[in-house]
Write a structure and sequence with these properties.
single chain; 171 residues; 8-stranded mixed beta sheet; 10 strands; 4 helices; globular; alpha/beta; two-stranded antiparallel ribbon; Dihydrofolate Reductase, subunit A
Length: 171
């Protein structure tokens, strides 16, 4: 079965965006393991806001390798050609996609989709790129998580910029 991997940049105080939606604090000066990660995946999941901000605009997804895109939204009625729109019962849809042939799946964002998939126990791995910055406010990575979740650290890497890459699985 394919794994669903939450791969996200996060501030030291666990924000994925600044207070005005900014992410200019994310390091882009080197690879930080992304090229290796891209060899593991062939599919990406995005929520409506992340889609509209990054993937939905012309050329917006060009920064990423070509992969199958799924947008999760109960308000959108159409997405760009080649992108699949998922609404309604996302648990059944995600379980079906995870059973299909292929590589692992990247949960790109956003916070609402992440929270929902975490609560449904559909995320298999966390890959957090912790940036050495405290934003003080913004959009938190985990929202509305109602139960304790135990994790096991399976890999860590410290970069000379201070970014720390942490990979966890659920136990």
């Amino acid at each position: 079965m394919r794994k669903l991997i939450l791969g996200v940049a996060v501030s030291l105080d666990s924000y994925i965006e600044g207070p005005n939606g900014e992410y200019d604090w994310c390091f882009t000066d080197q690879d930080y393991g992304l090229n290796e990660f891209y060899t593991r995946i062939d599919t990406v999941f995005v929520g409506r806001k992340s889609y509209e901000m990054s993937f939905g605009i012309e050329g917006g997804a060009d920064a990423f390798p070509k992969m199958k895109e799924y947008v999760f939204s109960n308000t959108l009625t159409s997405v760009k050609e080649g992108t699949m729109l998922i609404s309604g019962d996302i648990k059944t849809a995600v379980e079906k996609i995870k059973q299909e042939e292929g590589k692992d799946i990247w949960l790109f964002g956003g916070a609402s989709l992440t929270s929902t998939l975490m609560q449904l126990h559909l995320v298999d791995e966390l890959w957090l790129s912790v940036h050495p910055i405290i934003l003080g406010q913004g959009k938190p990575l985990f929202q509305d998580i109602k139960e304790r979740t135990n994790l096991q650290l399976v890999e860590s890497k410290v970069y000379d910029t201070g970014l720390v890459s942490l990979k966890y699985i659920f136990v």
